[in-house]
Amino acid sequence: xxxxxxxxxxxxxxxxxxxxxxxxxxxxxxxxxxxxxxxxxxxxxxxxxxxxxxxxxxxxxxxxxxxxxxxxxxxxxxxxxx
Length: 82
Known about the structure:
By secondary structure, the chain is mainly alpha-helical. It has two helices and two strands, in the order ααββ. It has a two-stranded antiparallel ribbon. The radius of gyration is 26 Å and the shape is elongated.
């Protein structure tokens, strides 16, 4: 059987973990409302034809032209370290 002081510390630690978990859940649920996003006006949209202009570097330094991908199913995987 554990001493009463140890049991009290365990109870306090459990309550602290519970409170921190609840706080984290509430903070996550309340963050990033609709007011934080912006929508571009229709006149500011890029014409579809301009999307096919340009190139990008694929794996192993291979250059790929956007126009060569037209009509194909393509998945772009962007990785950003933020």
